[in-house]
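User: Can you write out an input/output pair for a complex, sequences first and structure second?

Assistant: Here is one pair. Inputs:
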Amino acid sequence: MLSEDEKRLQEYLEGFLTPERKERMRTVLEQRTRYITCVLEDLFDPRNGSAVIRHCDALGIHELHAIENKHRFKSDTQVDLGTAQWLDMRIYRKPRGVAPTSVKGRRRAAQASPDGIPPPEKSRTPTVLADLKSRGYRIVATSPHADDDALPETLDLAAGPVAVVFGTEKHGISDAVRAAADVFLRIPMVGFVESFNLSASAAIVFHVLSRRIRLEGLPWRLEAEDAERVMHTWLRRTVPHAERLIARFEAENALGG
Amino acid sequence: MLSEDEKRLQEYLEGFLTPERKERMRTVLEQRTRYITCVLEDLFDPRNGSAVIRHCDALGIHELHAIENKHRFKSDTQVDLGTAQWLDMRIYRKPRGVAPTSVKGRRRAAQASPDGIPPPEKSRTPTVLADLKSRGYRIVATSPHADDDALPETLDLAAGPVAVVFGTEKHGISDAVRAAADVFLRIPMVGFVESFNLSASAAIVFHVLSRRIRLEGLPWRLEAEDAERVMHTWLRRTVPHAERLIARFEAENALGG
């Protein structure tokens, strides 16, 4: 629940929005879901990350997890069109001591360590997926696995919320994802090429799932308290000059109190 | 129908393929369709064209029309992964006399024309769409239009084959497409951003339609004669050293005859 102070701050910030803007934010908020969440594992092309951010916003998928193992997660506002600010994005930064990806960086690291060998790499994937599981998510690995893989249209959504994991561009999901997966999902293909690019895969999967949760009567909406908190965050992030306004509000409140 | 000579040439070329390769080509061929065809109007980003080429191959959509009005259609084999050779791609090259897109080109054109005014631009879109209509295609414009727009899931596919038109990246479909459209199609969105990028839109639309034609008992398969012709083209394009082999075959045949 928002505290009384937060509620007053929220009303104050909302005062700086046009009614149309406020209405737009409410409309979008009503369509947000955490029933489907997106997990990106170690992407390296910023265009892909950005494209997926944009898909998530467009389809109401509010929570996006970006795991860095070897690569820094970057997005490109030219591609995501600034939508990242409307999402609950959780970026798990590359752990210290991981071998840098650039040749220059690797050379430097090799020089720095006494035996000339970079420290072993450590994946953050297992802990991120374990956290999601403990929150009740089923882990859906997007990778062909066996003939009985689920399709976006047949994945069991009634069994509970899903965290759909997309792997790195070249090699797909890691063994850590495979080990944690509750379900494997594939998109049927009938051509010479046997994969879609990451952005296209994510668009297809999330389009289908996002439509299905709405049609199948699943409890996909944000809880009231969660929605209130999201609106609060949006206001703080997106009202023009919000920081200055918050400082003023706090000063005035302290003065008035 | 293939002529007797073509049939013999085909057998000859097939002799240079492994049984696995031949089998793979037959399997892919059986899944090809012209019931859905893709029309790209004046794209300018080669990555988009290439991504759509790859989607079409992966989903069995055999025929792709790329109309150039102001921009040259280019694809990038890094992105399409060489799939263009497996499609019936029809590129309508930019007509002569169109104002060049670069500033330098425009200046040169202005200098060349006696009154200093570049010739009027002429769109090839109307004739391409008219040709498709005369072949029985319904023109599906991918652009929000009105509340009753079709969705990929609700588009009437039983009414006949569809040519799905995607417009240029920034401005979407042209007025020529709007004028020729039998149906408007939109992808439902519930976020702050009100569009998908072109590659994502095409992936969603073609995934859904490609699945639907297969499930809804529509006459989506290539006709036998068409399929035979496609296989012939594939062999000529993809058997290693096909040109040399064909020359040898023709020489031997002439010698033998």
